[in-house]
Design goal:
mainly alpha
């Protein structure tokens, strides 16, 4: 019985470690995304300004099919 409990405890510790690593990676990814979004907004203004708009073609440029 003690062997089973020990093995389960080892498995729980491994799962906790994997969860912790996943949380750190997710948090780092969220920070990176926020930094990129902030830089983009600083360069181009608010990101919501361009949603749903089409870019205009310059004079003489053909429409792509």
């Amino acid at each position: 019985m003690a062997d089973i409990v020990t093995e389960q405890w080892i498995q729980i510790q491994g799962l906790e470690q994997a969860l912790h690593i996943t949380q750190i990676l997710t948090f780092d990814h969220a920070l990176l995304f926020a930094e990129r979004k902030k830089k983009k907004e600083e360069r181009f203004g608010s990101s919501s300004c361009c949603i749903g708009t089409q870019t205009q073609r310059t004079k003489g440029q053909k429409k792509k099919n």
